[in-house]
Amino acid sequence: MRGSRVRHLEAKRGRVEIIPMIDVMLFLLVFFIIVTLQMIPDKGILLQLPSSSETQRLAHPQYTVNVAANGTMSVSGKTVTQAELTALLRGDPDPAHTEVTIAASKDVPFQFFVHAMDACHDAGVSDVGVAAQPAPVATP
């Protein structure tokens, strides 16, 4: 055993690296923030809705069509034409059971509201609601 040497290796202690853990935690935080923001329903645009004594609170519709005073329509913040709205609604898996709410200010000409209704009808959507605010209750 001449010439053979026994080597002793020092036992290395494990180290906990904190920087990669911080990176993973920040990634998870950003991921959950993005997912949470996508779960917030479409609030539409600020409108002066007409009032009605027959208002009912409805479940959140699948689509909210906002009609501006100049006749432009938007869905989820994207401006669409009547043909694009029809195509969007037709693209839904079951247009007959698609829920649409049309929100138009009280100063919007009725013809622009009818354009949105026509787009829904052309797509085969029959469950259309009209956004309105409750009428003020008169006190005696």
For the biggest sheet, the summary is:
5 strands, mixed
Query: Helix- and strand-based class?
Result: alpha/beta
Please give the oligomerization state of what you see. single chain
CATH fold node name of the domain at 51-134? Nucleotidyltransferase, domain 5
- Please tally the β strands and state the result: 7
Spatial separation of the terminal alpha carbons:
113 Å
* Broad CATH class of the domain at 51-134: Alpha Beta
Overall form: elongated
Number of helices: 3
Helix fraction? 25-40%
Mean pLDDT rating: 79
SSE arrangement, N to C:
HEEEEHEHEE
Q: Based on the structure given, which CATH architecture of the domain at 51-134 is correct?
A: 2-Layer Sandwich
Strand order of the largest sheet: 4-3-2-5-6
Radius of gyration: 29 Å
Poorly predicted segments? none
The proportion of residues in beta strands is: 15-25%
Keyphrases for this structure?
Nucleotidyltransferase, domain 5; 7 strands; 5-stranded mixed sheet; 32% helix; alpha/beta; 140 residues
Compact overview of the structure:
The protein has 140 residues and is α/β, with parallel strands linked by helices.
Describe this structure in words.
The structure is a single chain. The protein has helices spanning 18-39, 82-90, 110-123; strands spanning 51-52, 63-67, 73-75, 78-80, 99-104, 127-130, 133-134. With 140 residues, it is α/β, with parallel strands linked by helices. A five-stranded mixed sheet has the order 4-3-2-5-6. The protein has a two-stranded parallel sheet with strand order 1-7. Strand 2 and strand 3 form a beta hairpin. It is elongated and about 100 Å long.
